[in-house]
Amino acid sequence: MCNLYSHVKGPKAIRDLANAMGGDWLDLTGNLEPQPSIFPDTLAPVVRINPAGDRELVLMRWGFPTPDPKPGEKKKSGYQTNIRQPRWKQWLPSIEVGQRCIVPASSFSEYDHRTTPPTCTWFALDETRPLFFFAGVWMHWFGHRGTKANPADGDHLLYSFLTTAPNGEVAPVHPKAMPVLLLDQAARETWLTGTIDEALAVQRPAPDGTLKIVSTGPKEDGA
Hints:
This protein has a single domain, classed as SOS response associated peptidase-like (hypothetical protein yedk fold). The protein has 223 residues and is mainly beta. The chain is 14% helix and 39% strand. The chain is globular, with a radius of gyration of 17 Å.
């Protein structure tokens, strides 16, 4: 599953696509810098409809807390950065419009386990890294995040994004799943504001031929 992605186009590209969707927008991210490598627990930009009903670009921390373990099991380490299919089909009916978000990205990485060690493999729409969005959900959470060197305690806005079956480009590298990509204005608007049935309809693999492998090896994609 995807635990590493990038956005390298900067805030103007995000705002341009956001403005194309209409309505009033608030940009709360400040001087947003390109991020060639976004790892779990990193702060990154997310577009949401806030509790007042306004659309805003805001920084959130990537990864939900892992679910509580079953009796006799140990709690899993790390964060729930992806909500896997088919689990989201059971979970999403409880998600209100105001809990959905779209996550800007220019590429995402999967590890190719056909090599030793596995090769970090970056997928994008093409070599110029056009902006696209993941279908995401967000939540409020109180607790400890960050690192020992840079702790972050208190209230947090957290996000995660959905996965679905892989398409033809991703399947040879990662045969289990790929992120849900929102590739056009209609899909983004449906995910943010549609009914749950309409939103579920956009949860599908990207069409074959949509993606290209644009880099292999490095754990960042800063082209």
